[in-house]
Design goal:
With 66 residues, the chain is an all-alpha fold. It has one domain.
């Protein structure tokens, strides 16, 4: 195998690993959003949270994790 072919192989390994990492990160982010949405929806549907609570949650999250 020629040197440039070996370099191409290494580049392919790097690219494949990077794409896998992005896929896993995106999957986890989607699962997180789904869990947060489910939690908020349950609180709203169960009347545990009233008007303005989602806005307060948004402000809280922005202040704690900008």
């Amino acid at each position: 195998m020629k040197l440039h072919e070996q370099f191409d192989h290494i580049l392919t390994l790097i690219t494949t690993a990077r794409n896998k990492a992005l896929y896993v990160a995106n999957t986890e982010q989607i699962l997180l959003y789904w869990e947060v949405g489910r939690f908020v929806s349950e609180k709203l549907d169960g009347s545990e949270w009233g008007d303005g609570t989602v806005l307060k949650l948004s402000q809280f999250l922005q202040s704690k994790d900008p």
